[in-house]
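task queued by scheduler; priority normal; single chain, no ligands, no partner chains; default sampling; output format set to structure tokens
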Amino acid sequence: MSKKAKTIFMCNECGYESHKWMGQCICGAWNTMVEQKIAASDAEDKRGRTLGSRSTAVKLKEVVSSQFTRIDTGIGELNRVLGGGLVKGSLTLISGEPGIGKSTLILQTAANIANTSGKVLYVSGEESEEQIKLRADRVCKGDIENLYILAETNMENIEAVCQDLNPVFLIIDSIQTMYTESLDAAPGSISQIRACGNLLMRLGKTAGIPIFIVAHVTKSGELAGPKIVEHLVDCVLNFTGERSRELRILRSLKNRFGTTSEIGAFEMEEEGLVEIEDLSKSFLEGMAQHPEGAVTTALYEGTRPLFLEIQALTSPANIGFARRSTIGADSARLNMILAVLERKAGVTLINQDVYVNIVGGLKPEGTSVDLAVALAVYSSFKGTAADSKTPVIGEIGLTGELRNVQNCDKIIKEAARMGFERIIIPAGNLKRLKAKSEIPSGINVRGASNLREAISAYFSQ
């Protein structure tokens, strides 16, 4: 005998659920509680388990570890970000601004898997079959026999089609357009997004189907909808880039089957997204031999080191306060570096406008580029040519000391492979490398314990 539908109240701001209406939610918002009717079922819960069955605990040592079965997407950079390919039964959430290339990426992935692994179902709640066909004719190669398109927003209908088709890969574009008949709320609401996410999780885990879920972003660039969706999925990918540039960066923000903060690089061409295999070379191409205010630096992203160019420009401030402008760098971090330059290196920048740009559109998350920013500003202010053949890495502290950076040994090996003859690193990192005898031949590694020593070592020939 089935249970009656129950009524709950849910906050539109945070998703908090209550059995009674409240004027103010626990998140502090007023008048955001909305009545929701949920049809209860006594057959199965959201994980596919029969309700009423009793769970039992098992010993950890009795749990058998197994290797995850992965599906090759046919795109090397996407495989890298995912940790080696799509894991069967996994849920992957991909987000990005409109027009950045999300649909192009997943359509190319769907075409590759359809040609090699079996049937693929592309569910679109925003575009018609004709619109997807036009994009496929442009970005996909060959006759795709096993790629199926479904223009549907009802989750019950989608689940029925999946049972009949039995695909090896499922794409939902997008989660904000989907709805389930068990709720009275409109598509895109917090309750609908949560319920559809639970249904997709049950479908993927029980049938072993990897699922790609496309999500919208807010004006601030964050994922739209409740945070519960990010907690449900196994992998969260963020697709970024500027429409005026061809470069696109795919970053892993969460990955239960691989490395987080891994990035993949693509270039938007007329025929679709093209992989960039040597990202460091693309960042550094066009850099002058002895530029003024341009310094080469490196950071470790995911499982590979990246070399990039940091540019700085100082100009006398004519009116009012001096400006501090950054593209790709953290503005608060820049202000700290400028203060350290003034106190510890004797560089007076109070009447100077300072502009810092990270070439290529990449936004580093770590602090290993601090030293490069400081040297680029110093080079521009002093009018001294920088050495583009000498990368520098290091975090700057408030006392002017250079703090160690992670994966320094791998960065040095990559620098030697790329043909750099000299590199400047924190003295602490150099001491560890010498103790382990991990300094590669063919490159001069110099250490600096503070900002003054780094300036002296960098600008001395």
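post-processing summary
- The chain has three domains: 1-44, 70-276, 281-459.
- The first helix runs from residue 76 to 82.
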